Amino acid sequence: MAMLNHLTTACWKKVQNDRLKKQLFFICRALHKSAASDAFGISAAGEGAMPESVISSAAVSEKPRILSLEEMPGPSTLSNLVEFFWRDGFSRIHEIQMEHSKKFGKIFKSRFGPQLVVSVAHRDLVAEVLRAEGVAPQRANMESWKEYRDMRGHSTGLISAEGEDWLKMRSVLRQLVMRPRDVALFSDDVNEVVDDLINRVRILRTQESDGATVLNVNDLFFKYAMEGVAVILYESRLGCLENEIPQETQDYIGALHLMFSSFKTTMYAGAIPKWLRPVFPKPWDEFCCSWDGLFKFSQIHVDKRLSEIKAKVERGEEEIYANLTEMLLAGVDTTSFTLSWASYLLARHPHIQQQIYTEVTNTLGPGAVATADDVSRLPLIRGLVKETLRLFPVLPGNGRITQDDLVVGGYFIPKGTQLALCHYSTSFDEENFHDSLNFQPSRWIRKDSTDRVDNFGSIPFGYGIRSCIGKRIAELEMHLALTRLIQKFHICVSPLTSEVKSKTHGLLCPADPINLQFIDREN
Ligand code: HEM
């Protein structure tokens, strides 16, 4: 768990040395010698309002007329097979989620071969499930991730770890990267990356005949997101936004792209039984090859930093690699897709773009560079990110494996059932969001303290103790980048781009390249 020495160093770089030493000691002791909850006297439940109780089988017995799973509606196995394998349902998971929730209601079951999945498609039921979580919720079956790590002698990181191992890591990490004030310390570093993003926009648009268009903006935002996460996690620059990208960074980008582009095959990597691998070797080989590339890169960058704090590290470098590899993996495409959609929505709604520009200039004054502290005074910038994630939730659905017997929506769900939380369909439910198809960043502005617009209808970072640990990092990167882009440019849709639809490819991403024009504002 010495990764935490590194992260501690990164996050506390601006505090005194003594404090750093104390922190390092604290973390090492906590992670190596005792359970995190003992050491810190906290339970991970502090991250969200997690009630003690779960809906237990005892509670179940008090309620009459509880329906069984057999009685739950849902598509037939055959129609599911046709939908996914014949009609390429894997790239339309979000649409199928909508169709099924309209047809079967708030809760329904589907079978994928031997796997039964219960989909939960109503805000209140999603809330029920997440509020009932125990101390170490499980998202999905991570066997293929674990198998790769065992084979190569790597540890599990935060995404792939479960139970006590996960709880220990999470309890420490959340203190380092979940508190807004700790992440705010990186404002200046992230702003340097934003400077490079703006320069890059200027370079790229000169390469097009109209002198304004940046082709496939996601490519640019991918590099920005990677540089932004790395400046916080590795405390070093990778050169993603330079003209000549260093070879090791290019290799890493290649490995990430392979992981992403082979999403379907890597899904099969987990699904194909081991004994069939000699017959169908490709999914497993590609899966291992991308992870090899990702781990190699983390190793290089962690080693650079580790040598500086080696004396303080007791053991556990492997966990540093595993955690930073998984965090970088989780932090790049998610942020870049959201930035791409946000810019696209701004371009398609010039009057809203103008309103946000007015808010930014009135609040900051002309030409000022925003910091994390300014963001609370820019509610439309925050609303822009929330509204983008409502319309294009990067994770259109999330998973949980129930840790106890539950009753949800009147049905008995036995322990160990795979649940799918249908965030995409709840985001478009009129009951949760009036005029739900329309882009309205202002819907997120609170009129007064009773006017709560945040609800379980849109929880793009998840909720509770297993929610996204990178939320604050992602928000900082997105708020600072979008504020500056709006200050500098009129963002317009290029004539090369017509309506861009979304598709599911592991994450919800643009089905076609988004090409945008960035025209200088006169300021
Ligand atoms: C727009 C940006 C992002 C979105 C929408 C997003 C969304 C999510 C969601 C929905 C989850 C699952 C939560 C759950 O199961 O309840 C998750 C988990 C996670 N995310 Fe993010 N994420 C983003 C950016 C980031 C960044 C920048 C990082 C790292 C710096 C990151 C690191 C992680 C990790 C490590 C987990 C697993 C946490 C655990 O299992 O304990 N994410 N994210």
From TrEMBL:
Positions annotated to bind heme: 468
Keyword Heme among record annotations: yes
The UniProt record lists the keyword NADP: no
Residue ranges crossing the lipid bilayer per the database entry: none
Protein name: Cytochrome P450, family 27, subfamily C, polypeptide 1
InterPro entries with a match to the protein in the record: CYP11_CYP27_families (IPR050479), Cyt_P450 (IPR001128), Cyt_P450_CS (IPR017972), Cyt_P450_E_grp-I (IPR002401), Cyt_P450_sf (IPR036396)
GO MF term list: heme binding; iron ion binding; monooxygenase activity; oxidoreductase activity, acting on paired donors, with incorporation or reduction of molecular oxygen
Cofactor(s) of this protein: heme
